[in-house]
Amino acid sequence: MPNPLDAAAVRTWCGLALEALGRERERIDAINVYPVADGDTGTNLYLTLESAARAVEAAFGGHASAGTAPGLADAVGAMAHGALIGARGNSGTILAQLLRGMAQVLATAPAGGSGAADALRAALRRAATAAYEAVAHPVEGTVLTVATAAADAAERAADGPAAVARAAHEGAAEALRATPGQLAVLGRAGVVDAGGCGLVALLGALADALSGEVGAAPVAVRAGGALPVAAGCDAVVRDGCADPHAGGPAFEVIYLLEAGDAEVAALRGRLDRLGDSLVVVGGDGLWHVHVHVDDAGAAVEAGIEAGRPYRVRITHFGAGPRAKEPELAARAVVAVVPGVGLAGLCAEAGATPVTVRPGEPPASGELVQAIRQARAREVMLLPNDPELRHTAAAAAEQARAEGIRVALIPTRSAVQGLAALAVHEPGRSFDQDMVAMTAAAGATRYAELAVAEHRSWTMAGVCQAGDVLGLIDGDVAVIGPDLARTATAVLDRMLSAGGELVTLVLGADVPDELAAHLERHVRERHLAVDTVVYEGGEYAAPLLIGVE
């Protein structure tokens, strides 16, 4: 018996879609040749929808605790928002926009009758239109084409939400089969579009949720026809595709952005000039930005000028022969960092950064996703914060349960993380690398400068609001009137026990003159000690100091 288009149906849709993408994730990964043949479209779609499903469950849980039931607007709004904040890769970002487009219409849809069917038709049309608007340079033969075909088929369908959803699914599957003839790279590889394949799975789950019938055939068969996806998987490897990233940008940059519409319009133009595969989705002050660039720092800097970027993820596209399955690296590093500048620095060093804002520590699930994203058999995890010890340990345990060997390096500050990263060598044994990185972190004393927000007692005495605090190894050791004098006093204390290298990480609002002053002070007062300076960027402390 068909189900009404209500909050319960959205919850069921999320669950069925997550199951479908979980089953097909590896097969969709294997046919991923556009826009970058990095074999992660299925995984990115799954992780994006996983975030959407968690948001929907949270909406139901919140209403249950209040003794109420969520409405359709609550459920579809949560699904779209969850996808937006958890979107992964190009495909996940477009999926988030598709769901946002649907939510904009379904939020006011009636629960049943012809009104619900009409609302679903309008929602599918709005989803396709919104996706086209989000992509800087739309290309036919992709998920955009499949979404449009789904909307076209829905408009020709019989009445009733279940019939509309089933027609949309069938129209999408038919369009998916045609994609190799529309996009040359798909035709050469002998596969259908991977993102479109994921959308077919999503629409099939919607049809099942509304009809009350769970289809037994996997999406590979449903969408296959004359060109089954299973056969396409074996055709991905071609002589002309040895390097999937040859000639393309070096980095994928993704971040959430708090900004206004005018600022985002300017950001689109700037990022479009910097790279390709640009997709910007969202609205109402919150956006998800995805772009492929050679200059990851410039892409993040553009976001800073537009608004407040956070959850910055920078992935370096590795080169090398492509296998039938995405080849795992031998070893990788995942590092939690408090500033976008540090994120770029870690990415350039080959690590997968997880950028956090003050007061917004990452959840263990976010760290697990970063470990998966590193695509390595062995991972060194750098929490870089004593408060993240338990969160990082939980993430490491979950990743180990998935077959990934994880070492939790006990870094308590970003400067300890930089020291550990500097001695990281994937070529040596896992245990030797873990010992070397742990030793490097342990041999690095760390300090942080912060501004007191109110009068309080500290280990160094009473501070007043506005005083500059110098924390050494986590404890307040110096109270000073300004950054320069406090930093100088902190450096002298730290170097009194000796040292060979001073690392300075400057926050976004710290003047360059401070770094020059501190370098000069070290050079004049502490002979044979070198100094290196990095830009921490927004969200970093005013000054981080490391002494090795």
Strand order of the largest sheet: 13-12-9-16-14-15
Low-confidence stretches: 216-246, 319-326
**Average predicted confidence as pLDDT:** 84
Helix fraction, binned, reads: 40-55%
Assign the structural class, choosing from mainly alpha, mainly beta, alpha/beta, alpha+beta, or little secondary structure.
alpha/beta
Distance between the termini: 69 Å
- How many whole angstroms does the radius of gyration measure? 25 Å
Proportion in β-strands:
15-25%
Total helical elements: 20
Shape: elongated
What does this structure look like?
The structure is a single chain. By secondary structure, the chain is an alpha/beta fold. The chain contains 20 helices and 16 strands. The protein has helices at 7-30, 41-65, 72-86, 89-106, 113-134, 143-155, 161-178, 184-189, 194-211, 219-222, 229-233, 261-274, 296-306, 340-348, 364-373, 389-401, 414-422, 430-442, 483-495, 512-525; strands at residues 251-258, 275-283, 286-293, 308-316, 329-337, 352-355, 376-382, 405-408, 445-451, 456-458, 461-463, 468-472, 475-480, 501-507, 530-537, 543-547. The strands form four sheets. The protein has a six-stranded mixed β-sheet with strand order 13-12-9-16-14-15, with helices on both faces. Strands 2-3-1-4 form a four-stranded antiparallel β-sheet, with helices on both faces. It has a four-stranded parallel β-sheet with strand order 6-5-7-8, sandwiched between helices. Helix 15 packs across helix 16. The chain is elongated, with a radius of gyration of 25 Å. The N and C termini lie far apart (69 Å). Residues 216-246 and 319-326 have low confidence and may be disordered.
